[in-house]
Fold this sequence. Notes:
Radius of gyration: 25 Å
Strand content: 15-25%
Strand order of the largest sheet: 3-2-1-4-5-6
CATH topology of the largest domain: inorganic pyrophosphatase (n-terminal core)
Number of domains: 3
CATH architecture of the largest domain: Alpha-Beta Complex
Amino acid sequence: MPSRLVVGAGSTARAIIDAVSDGHGELWVLTDDEHRAETLREDGVSVTVTDEFGRATMRERDIAPVTVAVASDDPSVNVAAAETAAELFPDAFRLCYTGYGATDSQRDRLDAVADRLVDPEAVLTERLRESVGEPGSRIRNLRGVLRDIDGHLAVVTHDNPDPDAIASAVALGELAARAGCEVSLCYYGDISHQENRAFVNLLEYDLVNLDADDAAALETYDGFALVDHSRPGVNDQLPEDLPIDIVIDHHPPRLPVEARYVDLRSGVGATSTLLVDYFERLGVELPEHIATGLLFGIRVDTKDFRREVSAEDFLAAAQLVERADMDALQRIENPSVSGETLSIIGRAIDNREEEGSVLLSCVGELSDRDALAQAADRLLDLEGIHATMVYGVLDGTIFVSARARGADIDLGEALRDAFGQIGSAGGHADMAGAQIALGVLDGVDDREEPLHSIVKSVVNDRFLDVVQSRSHRLLGRIDGRTEFGLDEYVKRLRPADDNERS
């Protein structure tokens, strides 16, 4: 039976493993990461955990692989493993990954034994050139797409937009209007956070609230641009197959992004920073209301320049300060707080549970989903807490907001791993969110346990499982926590004799 050998279990190796795990032959993985090994074993993959990738290890099993993929993150490990594989399995096809930071000598040695060599730094450079080009060509490409639309452009933010998304949409809309487009600034969901409402009202932004049930309304637009997110149908309610003309975002994508023009720069802290760059390179003076919005968007997304901030964010803010209405910013940042927001924060405090330095809190039913983020921020101030997750239910959907501080975990990736299979999730390393449709959980009336308890069990267990696999420092050891999957919880919704009726 044909067999495949993969050395490594990092993100690149895992992508290879996923691609070849088709059941048509034996797959064997060598890795030094015990946690990733456990995950792979759960998926039915044969794994050997070792720090040595030499002859003895590769001869541990009597196989002659038809393909060998060497894809650890360490260039020195890749060189040694690739050369050993070439000696032991000369007839195998060898795919070799350099890893980051490989020297010229290491690349040459890998190239000498590889049938195909993958250099991530070269690939990244080429992809950037292809997608956005150099600054000058980036501007020309954007202008070309805008002029080619020659009609009504919908600039769409993510659902329930934050200041960075709103300000970026307003700024891109201004550039599109200057290129001759009729522009509508669109969003799905609500703008319920009191700061965000004050932001839109004080700066008099004209936004269109789209109705997810009115698909025909989209036919009035000749083009679509996405800001602060990158894929239709993911964190917005557009059709997943909708052709997109423009994407401008600072979040790293998990899947390829398809659009006529794509600008993804995850090295900056806010999409607003990218829009400042466009105005500067085009030589267009920023109107006061747009400069004010972009400055607020940068400040909010970088948490006042303390979170994932870059030199570009500081430079953009310095330009904006000269044009922004600072009095309006002060009024935006000190809005009145609704009683419902305070109530949700209070419930989050009362319902909190701690697992190591992770705090979780289910607030139950809610009417203001933006209060979850405020609650997650507040709870992060508790002594000994390095990560928080607060969630509640609104209109048949579980909304999750998570925050981290100095934690050995990427919250965006953690939430995608925990909830990506049953909902949508993403964000930054220290600020992320998720949405999970209740589905069958919301539709069963004869459950033995209250819906609140089922939701709490599913969400907590999924998140803690991921955190535990990614960071023992955060969670430590968990004792007494029931281990059930989502399917098991669905079964537990029904009485014991329900199987007879089904």
